[in-house]
Structure prediction request, 254 residues.
Amino acid sequence: MISQKKCREYRVELEEVLREIAAVSEQPKFESLQDYLGTGIPVLGLRSAQINDCFRTGFPWDELPMDDQWAVWQHIWFESQVFEAMSLALIFVRKRARKIGQERLYSDLPAWVDRVDNWAHSDELSHAYAVLLEQEQKRIFSMLKKWNRDSDPWKRRQSLVVLIRRRNKHTLAFEEMIPLIERLVSDDDYFVQKAVGWALRDIALVFPEPTETWVEAHVAELSSPAFATASERTHPTLKEAWKEVRRMERKRRK
Prediction:
């Protein structure tokens, strides 16, 4: 098994390569990409295409046994102080999930959420959890229900975004998903509220009638971010009727 010392050497080497790429790259569009992402992890400002190119180029540890490759990427995810290095770890999970192995992912990947502090890494990790949900629905859904009540807002966010990230025959029943949404309707975290909206919007694609009925019953309770996202694909006439209900409720509360 590869040593932690060697993992550190590989991590430092990767971070140096990323810094070299950043040094000759154009500045990001946003004045402060770190603020835009809302992360406390230093951001070099590489574009998605540059990060993907770096992954395609490959790494010195690519020829190691998968156990060792996984150990390196786990070390990078948990120890790196470079946003883009962590992003590469997530790309590895997405591109090499089959080779990593189902049991290894079930065992190790849930802990990755503990390092999340921004929406970009959260969304990429959601995709990985959604794939696991398809493969082992009972096991992963149980995890999501626990996260739904967690004090960490990124876990609460995951508990909703993962539910309907991939719409297919493995989709959970409406009656299983809606209690998780209901529990977070009044959550005070902005990114959790966005997740409430996304979940409702996407669940409506699979279960349009029960979702519409639920939204009508709770439309006045939804936060502005949740309502805006949940109603993105709603017919304009119905959306305007819901807006009027919300306006009337605001007047009543004054």
Summary: The radius of gyration is 20 Å. Residues 195 and 221 are 15 Å apart (CA to CA). The mean pLDDT is 94.
